[in-house]
């Protein structure tokens, strides 16, 4: 799980590569490197640590040249070190390459190459690819690249330079993303579109098993048989501003504040007063009525959005819904058939476990609907149906605006299925639609009303080593998501429980001053929550409650209250999550951590 970039054109390449890598740092940030083609051959500069280390090296001694490749790494094989950093080259220096993915048969290939006299200097799976290219080269680099497709098992997006054909970047991919940006007299390659949005809006998406030759003047794409393929570029309408921090201290804070707009986008053209249409779904009403169950599969935050989606779908559509973590789902031999609708949820569209779950579901005859933010991603391309989240580029590792659009997409889907399957009366449907349409405004209000109070709470949370999050019904997955956010960026141990479950064990952990965040955003379960809150308060917990405006009596039972605007309780999730995201953000900030790039994590998890 790494970021790769490449450039060929008429400008000095090093600053362009560094700029592109900076935008991909969310994919990995334990080391980085570049390779530049020039009169000396292929010059490689790399450094362990964040990109600024490489930047320092390049600034003091810039490699000159107009074509090159770069890499930002998230270690899989071998510790982060200068030697293990990419690019990797073969012994002769004829080939240098950068790689995103994992080569599963690398040990076998390494042994085989070792017997032929190849010697390796790193612990990586990537280095063997450079040696394999040198071994397979018979006077045609393209043929040597194609031969990789036959030999390599696992996932890879590769950008390759060769001294034999020094005017071309060769790229090839399988199960790891790769896009080619088209410019005027210059072309770009990258793991993800935002890397070069500043330079171009035209992108060619490379499919699995395809390779391409990228030169200053053009791009040629080939299938695995070496036959040329014609492909129309995708026009991307994000502006470069959308991919920048826009004046905020961190991407995460910017993305939290973008949530009202993200909600507007996910709803636009899909929902209007008295109307709900998901016209991009090509499923007929008969097909939509034929499903007997829904299976949701995702990882992390996307999984928690699915847990929340289950409550909403079951309540409105009266259909059984199961939710699984993708890494478990793929190995539990799930029972699926043509009457199962499988929904996979993924911001990046590249999460390896979710992609494998999608493939497994399709193999078993189920139709797969993807909720994804990434146009052109593997999940987008392989699903039968796609609902785009329209959150815009999400850069911070901790997902916020993508999460809120996932939850909103479940609201839309539930309302649409309820309409088609006739499980909600028309009048009630109109009322529910009206409530959903209020959400962007209410999210904006929640942001304004909660930020200052949460900053104050962060002063207390920053001193804690443990925290508890509790809730019932749709508030329980919110508690899980709130706890994940806090763990992920502030490194505080946080646990989430259904509020009624505490007395079955976890209550033993509560004592004076332990912080408990209680979400009471369900009118129908308000009294039950109040009882649970009293239980923790009686053990000395420091309780902060999140509840609807007007519930003033809660103030007697808790230490702090944060009010969110009142809305139909089925849809309160997109509001109540906002203070939890802010709490994680400000606590991490107070503790002095790297909010956007937390330790040990990466934005896009393209390895199993
Ligand atoms: C969220 O804050 C996390 N960084 C992580 O749990 C993430 O949601 C998960 O890895 C799934 O990613 P995806 O949505 O891109 O599939």
Question: What does this molecule look like?
Answer:
By secondary structure, the chain is α/β, with parallel strands linked by helices. It folds into three domains: 3-237, Aminohydrolase, N-terminal nucleophile (Ntn) domain (Glutamine Phosphoribosylpyrophosphate, subunit 1, domain 1, 4-Layer Sandwich), CATH 3.60.20; 242-437, Rossmann fold, CATH 3.40.50; 445-594, Glucose-6-phosphate isomerase like protein, domain 1 (Rossmann fold). Helices cover 36% and strands 23% of the residues. It is built from 17 helices and 27 strands. Strand 9 and strand 10 form a beta hairpin. Helix 4 (127-136) crosses helix 5 and helix 7 packs parallel to helix 13. It is globular, with a radius of gyration of 25 Å. Bound molecules: 2-deoxy-2-amino glucitol-6-phosphate (AGP). 2-deoxy-2-amino glucitol-6-phosphate binds at residues 299-302, 346-348, 351, 354, 397-399, 488, 604-605.
Annotate the secondary structure layout.
Elements: E1 3-8, H1 13-24, E2 31-38, E3 41-48, H2 51-60, E4 67-73, E5 88-89, E6 95-103, H3 106-115, H4 127-136, H5 141-151, E7 154-162, E8 169-174, E9 179-182, E10 187-190, E11 202-205, E12 211-214, E13 219-222, E14 228-229, E15 234-235, H6 251-257, H7 259-267, E16 271-272, E17 275-276, H8 285-290, E18 293-298, H9 300-317, E19 321-325, H10 326-329, E20 340-346, H11 352-363, E21 367-372, H12 378-382, E22 385-388, H13 401-421, H14 426-461, E23 466-471, H15 475-490, E24 493-498, E25 515-520, H16 526-537, E26 542-548, E27 560-564, H17 573-590
Parallel strand pairs: 18-19, 18-20, 20-21, 21-22, 23-24, 23-25, 25-26, 26-27
Antiparallel strand pairs: 1-4, 1-10, 2-3, 2-4, 5-6, 6-7, 7-8, 8-12, 9-10, 9-11, 11-15, 12-13, 13-14, 16-17
């Amino acid at each position: 799980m790494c970021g790769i970039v490449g450039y060929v054109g008429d400008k000095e390449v090093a600053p362009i590569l560094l700029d592109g890598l900076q935008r991909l740092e969310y994919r990995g940030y334990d080391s980085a490197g570049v390779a530049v083609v020039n009169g000396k051959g292929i010059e490689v500069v790399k450094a362990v640590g964040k990109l600024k280390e490489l930047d320092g090296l390049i600034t003091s001694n810039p490699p000159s040249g107009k074509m090159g490749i770069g890499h930002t790494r998230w270690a899989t094989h071998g510790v982060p070190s200068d030697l293990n950093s990419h690019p990797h080259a073969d012994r002769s220096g004829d080939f240098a390459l950068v790689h995103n993915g994992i080569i599963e048969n690398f040990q076998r290939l390494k042994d085989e190459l070792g017997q032929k006299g190849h010697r390796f200097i790193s612990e990586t799976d990537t280095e063997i690819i450079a040696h394999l290219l040198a071994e397979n080269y018979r006077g045609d680099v393209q043929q040597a690249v194609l031969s990789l497709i036959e030999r390599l098992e696992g996932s890879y997006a590769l950008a390759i330079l060769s001294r034999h054909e020094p005017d071309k970047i060769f790229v090839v991919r399988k199960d790891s993303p790769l896009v080619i940006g088209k410019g005027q007299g210059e072309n770009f390659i990258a793991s993800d579109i935002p890397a070069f949005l500043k330079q171009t809006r035209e992108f060619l998406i490379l499919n699995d098993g395809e390779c391409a030759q990228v030169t200053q003047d053009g791009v040629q794409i080939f299938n695995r048989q070496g036959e040329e393929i014609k492909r129309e570029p995708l026009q991307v309408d994000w502006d470069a501003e959308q991919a920048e921090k826009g004046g905020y201290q961190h991407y995460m804070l910017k993305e939290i504040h973008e949530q009202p707009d993200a909600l507007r986008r996910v709803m636009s053209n899909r929902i209007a007063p008295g109307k709900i249409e998901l016209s991009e779904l090509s499923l007929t009403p008969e097909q939509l009525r034929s499903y007997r169950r829904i299976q949701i599969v995702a990882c992390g935050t996307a999984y928690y959005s699915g847990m929340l989606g289950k409550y909403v779908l079951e309540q409105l559509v009266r259909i059984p819904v199961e939710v699984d973590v993708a890494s478990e789902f793929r190995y539990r031999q799930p029972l699926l058939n043509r009457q199962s609708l499988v929904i996979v949820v993924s911001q990046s569209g590249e999460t390896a476990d979710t992609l494998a779950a999608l493939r497994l579901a399709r193999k078993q005859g189920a139709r797969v609907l993807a909720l994804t933010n990434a146009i052109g991603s593997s999940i987008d391309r392989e699903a039968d149906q796609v609902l785009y989240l329209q959150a815009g580029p999400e850069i911070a590792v901790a997902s916020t605006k993508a999460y809120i659009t996932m939850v909103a997409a479940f609201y839309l889907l539930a309302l649409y299925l309820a309409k088609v399957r006739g499980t909600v009366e028309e009048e009630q449907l109109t009322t529910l639609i009206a409530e959903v349409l209020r959400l962007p405004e209410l999210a904006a209000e929640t942001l304004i009303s909660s930020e200052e109070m949460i900053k104050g709470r962060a002063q207390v949370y920053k001193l804690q080593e443990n925290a508890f999050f509790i809730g019932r019904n749709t508030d329980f997955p919110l508690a899980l998501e709130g706890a994940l956010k806090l763990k992920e960026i502030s490194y505080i141990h946080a646990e989430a429980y259904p509020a009624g479950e505490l007395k079955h064990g976890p209550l033993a952990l509560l004592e004076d001053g332990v912080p408990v965040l209680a979400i009471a955003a369900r009118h129908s379960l308000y009294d039950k929550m109040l009882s649970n809150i009293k239980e923790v308060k009686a053990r000395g917990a420091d309780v902060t409650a999140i509840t609807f405006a007007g519930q003033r009596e809660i103030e007697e039972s808790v230490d702090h209250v944060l009010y969110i605007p009142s809305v139909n309780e089925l849809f309160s999730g997109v509001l109540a999550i906002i203070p939890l995201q802010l709490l994680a953000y400000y606590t991490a900030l107070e503790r002095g951590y790297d909010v956007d790039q937390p330790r040990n994590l990466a934005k896009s998890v393209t390895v199993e």
